[in-house]
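Changelog-adjacent note: as of this version, every example in the card shows the full chain rather than a window. The one below runs 411 residues end to end.
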Amino acid sequence: MKKLVILGAGTAGTMMLNKLVPVLDPDEWQITIVDQEPRHYYQPGFLFIPFGIYRPEDVVKPKRNFFPAGAEAVFGRIEAIEPDRNRVVLEGGRILAYDWLILATGARIAPEETEGMLGEGWRRNVFDFYTLEGATALAGFLEDWEGGRLVINITEMPIKCPVAPLEFAFLADWWFTKRGIRNKVEIEFVTPLSHAFTKPVAARYLGDFLQQKNIKLTTDFSTGSIDAANNRIVSWDEKEVGYDLLVAVPTNKGDDCIERSGMGDELNFVPTHKHTLLSKNHPNIFVIGDATDLPASKAGSVAHFEADILLENFRRAIAGRPLKEEFDGHANCFIESGFGKGLLIDFNYDVEPLPGKFPLPGLGPMSLLQESRINHYAKLMFRWVYWNLLLRGAELPLEPQMSMCGKRRVA
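Full-length structure tokens:
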């Protein structure tokens, strides 16, 4: 019997499990999924918790709820992957042999990578919102905060959901306006990028939004340390930004098991063929989601589009057929802009976000790079889609490759 092991039961791993179980003969295949965390988190929902839009219970469910019959689930820490021996070693010494391996080990925040971030200010006036614990603690802080200097700081790229820090800034502007204390809060967005976002056209649109909302943009700031005693962030070239409240986006890294296995780059992301999703170093290992080193966004939509490509390529690989080089880096992201409105961006490796209509040319109903209430409600409704369709491997009416339909080229 052939053995398939999927490491990671987050968005990408769970989708692949649900897509593969129905197409692999149970008399020929043993499928095992491994994760050390029994709870599944709807990570896009973390953004809404500090502002009271979601509660913690809205974004957490048991992972077993989304596993199909016909697969073995193992909860435990991954000690190491031994690709030269086609096996995975778990904590306690259990060995899982495999014929094929899918790495969906994701990414995590690593605040320990920045000097001083985990110092005396951590969870006192220095918070993250990329974890449930961080978002919940920040919600408690904001309930009683009466104003001051709010700094949102991206430590370094890449990060999960690159638009989320901007969304936090926009929602903060709305939140403090709603509370009647916006005039008492100075908001500054500090980024290592040269613009508000990674793509020039979108950066121009999003930078204009920051300006309209009176949010100061500080670019080219490479955070070197946090001076918690004096409430300031310090760059590697010794520039300083003071804060009363720091919302930090720490360094993002791949899972530590990748480092222990010697399979990743300096941030523990796995070298992956950008169009086939096959490991560059191991012919029987595929990589998906945030675990890859691809020049694509680390976002749930990317994992969704990758899953469709990987399903086809896995079936080709086990049949000894050539892989299709069809993943184009497609990403599709809603951006909360506050006051019950949102934007939508749709792009890939080669085409940056452009204005227009989505998904139907001229009709939409959603607008690209333009505020609308439909975009806001679509983002909120996506939570239902995520729990009930996406994780369960259902086919959604979006092609994995990006389409130019409805988009307008701009200078």
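Structural remarks: The chain has seven helices and 24 strands.
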